[in-house]
Amino acid sequence: MTLTLNQRAAVLSVVLLLAGLLVWEVSIAAGGAGSAELTEYEKLTGGGAPKAGVPPPSQVIAKAWAELSDPFYDAGPNDKGIGIQIGYSIYRVLSGYLLAALVAIPLGFLIGMSPVAWRALNPFIQVLRPISPLAWMPLALFIIQDSEASAIFVIFICSIWPMLINTAFGVAGVRADWVNVARTHELGTLRTAFTVILPAAAPTIVTGMRISIGIAWLVIVAAEMLVGGTGIGYYVWNEWNNLDLTSVIFSILMIGVVGMALDAAFGVLQRAVAYAE
């Protein structure tokens, strides 16, 4: 039986994963077995006390099983299930992201269709775009006076630029012949925008949206570490303060899984709007 390219890639991925886990497990076990015998002085000064260390993968898997068995438990402000924490993070990401889409896509259309608007707004875009989203956090906290809304604002800021620039680039790149044909048929500006320009520019726009959701998911972790309360970023920081590295590694893996799922969703959308001339 001949395996397809995807099947061979899947088998190789599983082999690499198992090899990595095995090396990790063995290296942790070897490090523990190599500990030297404590002297009397070290025992008297507390040298024998348990020390935090990197957990083996078996411990992380056991932690993941325990957390994922009851992901929505709520035992107080600092003890919530991983499902609740991720839910708060996704809510903030989607809130800021959708607000950014409402602003960026229409504005990108305007910039892409109007050279005057592009020349007028480009200096502002070039100045604001390189600013780190987290640099806005102190100002947002001071003005908005609400940590939840400030985190959403930071997601809004980091999401808007890729969508805005890609929309403008996609709209400006639509072939002039198609727009001229629409004018020949006396289509209005809005009808031309929705029936001619939008289908042609959609792949570029969705690419910008896909980049934005990835950046938003990266930024929410850091933002939640700053604002605290709830969310996967706060969960990582809280477990670090508890010196629970097993939970830290588990939450890092969950951040990766959720980020991959968000990217995959936009990958499906990108294929759905693929435009063939």
Automatic annotation (TrEMBL):
State the protein's purpose: Probably part of an ABC transporter complex. Probably responsible for the translocation of the substrate across the membrane.
Give yes or no: UniProt keyword RNA-binding.
no
Domain of life assignment: Bacteria
Q: Which UniProt keywords apply?
A: Cell inner membrane, Cell membrane, Ion transport, Membrane, Transmembrane, Transmembrane helix, Transport
Q: Which GO terms describe its biological process?
A: alkanesulfonate transmembrane transport; monoatomic ion transport
Q: Which gene encodes it?
A: ntrB
Q: Which residues form the signal peptide?
A: none
Q: What is this protein called?
A: Nitrate ABC transporter permease
